[in-house]
């Protein structure tokens, strides 16, 4: 299966409600279910079937996601929206366990070569710069 085909699951899901997700973040509180495909994590973290379906297989797929003109652009856009919020508590914005998923996702995309600095900025703001250790371990870093 090509990388584009692998990414199609994200394209389809985000086409349904990315704008709702962005509006929720801008309003300071996530209220619906979209975390898996807007802020995906590396394979091996999530246990639910949905988490497994939307898991990023490896660094190559993460790179393809962030380089995709729609998916990458939207990831940066919604990450910047997080930075524009007052406060530094991810639980207040996302609830649990999505607050932990954000740290994992930002760690994943921030670990890529030439990563957009927004990913580290989100880690700095909400997690005192601390990366998710399990994500780094799964990436072999």
The rough form would be described as globular
Residue share in β-strands: under 5%
Helix segment tally:
9
CATH structural fold name? Serine Threonine Protein Phosphatase 5, Tetratricopeptide repeat
What's the story with the biggest beta sheet?
none
Q: Please write the string of helix (H) and strand (E) elements.
A: HHHHHHHHH
> How many domains is the backbone divided into?
1
- Which ranges are low-confidence, i.e. pLDDT below 50, for 5 or more consecutive residues? none
CATH architecture verdict: Alpha Horseshoe
Task: Describe, in plain words, how this protein is organized in 3D.
65% of the residues lie in helices and 0% in strands. The protein has one domain: Serine Threonine Protein Phosphatase 5, Tetratricopeptide repeat, CATH 1.25.40.380. It has 141 residues and is an all-alpha fold. It is built from nine helices and no strands. The protein has helices at residues 3-26, 35-38, 49-53, 59-67, 71-83, 90-94, 98-110, 117-127, 133-139. It is globular.
């Amino acid at each position: 299966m090509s990388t584009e085909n692998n990414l199609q699951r994200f394209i389809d899901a985000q086409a349904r409600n990315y704008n709702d997700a962005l509006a929720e973040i801008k309003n300071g509180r996530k209220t619906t279910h979209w975390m898996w495909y807007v802020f995906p994590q590396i394979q091996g973290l999530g246990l639910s079937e949905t988490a497994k379906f939307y898991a990023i297989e490896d660094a190559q797929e993460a790179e393809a996601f962030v380089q995709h003109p729609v998916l990458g652009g939207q990831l940066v856009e919604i990450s910047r929206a997080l930075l524009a919020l007052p406060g530094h508590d991810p639980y207040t914005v996302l609830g649990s366990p999505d607050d932990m998923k954000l740290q994992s996702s930002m760690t994943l995309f921030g670990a890529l070569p030439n990563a957009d600095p927004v990913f580290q900025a989100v880690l700095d703001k909400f997690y005192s710069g601390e990366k998710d250790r399990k994500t780094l371990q799964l990436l072999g870093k």
